[in-house]
Amino acid sequence: MIGALPFFRFFLLLLCGLGVLSAVDMSHQAYVWQRQWTPRLVDSIEAHAAELDGLTVLVAELSPSADGGSVVRVAVDYEALAASSLPICFAIRVGNYSGPFDGDQAMTRRLLSEVRVALDQARAAGVVPSAVEIDFDCATRQLEGYAQWLLALRSVLGEVSLSITTLPTWMTRPQAFGELVGLTDHFVVQVHSVKRPSSIESKVLLCDPGDALRWATEASAFGVPYHIALPTYGYRVGFDQSGALVKVSGENAPLIDDPELRYRVIRAEPVLMSELVCALQNGLPAHCEGVIWYRLPIGRERFNWDAVTWCAVMDGHVGQSSWQVQGVAQADGLIELQIVQRSLLAMKPPQQVTVGWADAAVVAWDGQRNYNVQTAPDHGLTFQWPDTMAAPLLPQGTRWTIGWLRMDAEAALHFTLIP
Q: Is the bond preceding residue 100 a cis peptide, omega within 30 degrees?
């Protein structure tokens, strides 16, 4: 699929740029998947309530076992949810489990009990649940067993809608998948983190837009309303000396390097996601109600998007890299080379910035922010981002000093940039 991506992007840009298709109304919702509610999270819900059509909020995580397992409940700020005036779906995450799924099993009773607790707590706090979503990465071969759970849940939910998270691989068993989602009022197709890199050099996207549209089209054939789950996040992977993937860490994991490992960050690409949103706006597949974002950005996060980027992507803003390069003279005669990020979408720093001049000579220079410096022919220096280093996503307004130079005489500088 990677090889087809340039043509796919050209096709999306053509549709978005020329307005070939008429835009449709599309729902945007967001997951609140944080285990700890902080003031920043509450502020983010308040700030973005007007842009969203609903929230799906994690309330409990089950660790299954034959005796019913254990549960960790999230201390949800129901007052913040009520103040948002948004429809609230409460999510229960279920860990690895291979059955049995019968109604008289301890694990089934545990799941039903936690759903009752979630509903009771919300109602007691004055929040009316719009739905309950079960997030269970069921093995594809066990969809029939999972269906038993959904049948049992109906007696607990009453008039509350039932939703589930689904994986694209489940649709390789269309009859079992159809029967499963037929027991729900709504489902979510998770089109991110489907593939992980097999090596530190492998070109794997956290979310491939071509795959996402293909899976959305397949999902529409089952006749049940659904949302597509798109990512805002990133994660860090570590490879050992043999090239094997041995470590995966997310937003809240301690950022401690093992000297024996090589690391890489896999991120949701704002430009690609914006182009995908634009394509969906220009023609949603049948029964697709829109996008649910995993997860709500709260600011100052290592791998998650900033709020400006997220809002621009939701609007389908198809922006390209927009960097401004400046030579800023200092009091001691040194010239700092600064780059400023002007795009609405978070962008990676430029791969290469070349500075040139005439009628002078450079007497000293150095790179900063990981940039290496090479001399260029005809009075020039090239500041190069290392090919082996993962580049961060930098939000609008970011200003970096990527190096400096000192000249033996005053000279006008000119810049060339490669995104």
A: yes
